[in-house]
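Sanity check. The docking grid for flavin mononucleotide depends on where the pocket ends up, so I'm generating a full predicted complex first rather than guessing from homology. Inputs follow.
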Amino acid sequence: MLLAYILAPALASIGLALIGYDGSYRKISRPLTKIPLPPPRYDSNISVEHALRVRRSIREYEDKSLTLEQVGQLAWAAQGITEKRYGFRTAPSAGATYPLEIYVVVKKGGVEGLPEGIYHYLPREHTLELLKSGDYSRELMDACLDQEWVRDAAINIVITAISERTTWRYGERGRIRYVHMEVGHVGQNIYLQCVSLGLGCVVIGAFYDEEVKKIIGVDEEPLYVIPVGAKKGGWL
Ligand SMILES: Cc1cc2nc3c(=O)[nH]c(=O)nc-3n(C[C@H](O)[C@H](O)[C@H](O)COP(=O)(O)O)c2cc1C
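Predicted complex below; grid placement will be based on this.
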């Protein structure tokens, strides 16, 4: 029973791959430029208890670039694969259907050695693929009702949902409940990982959906925009 529960999404995704469906309703003309991310670290000097104790939403950041290691660590915390056989990830997912996609909007100078642009995270390869070049941080701030921390952050992580990956199995309940529960898990992972990396972030739910979709260039439901930058004064 457990095996069927686990295997169904995997078989479905193989089927979708065979008919050329790339999992996100995007017409992507590959090959896109890919940036392999440094492997994630599995330990640190910060305990999960400490991270839970001090975590706060942070809206002011040092004017400092992130490293590619930090970006990779955040992407891994959000949706990294932690079990190769069935592809289980850092965050739980209803029926392991994994409806969420992770995008990283990098502003000019936001990440050392990574040009400004919009990148899509590929969990299986632990790689970013470049979707669009350019600095979209101001446009994204406008789409987020002028919340300045979006413009000021080194990067913004945008999380979208492809609900059909979950509704084929759970019906409407998948769309109105499960995908929103899942994005909460991912948001908390990012908050805690930020503490461990000396970074600050805030989850943003107030934005114009259509504008965020247009900026990212995908027909997926945006759920969170998460500005991330170096935490002023570090975490005590
Ligand atoms: C679903 C959700 C949506 C949120 N949207 C925004 C937002 O649009 N802008 C913002 O600055 N903070 C946003 N926040 C962050 C909350 O304001 C913040 O979590 C709250 O004030 C408690 O502070 P803390 O996170 O530091 O404990 C949001 C939080 C959640 C859970």
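Relevant for the grid: The pocket of flavin mononucleotide is lined by residues 56-57, 59, 147, 202-206 (CB under 6 Å).
Also worth noting: The helical segments are 2-18, 48-54, 68-79, 137-143, 148-152, 164-170, 172-197, 209-216.
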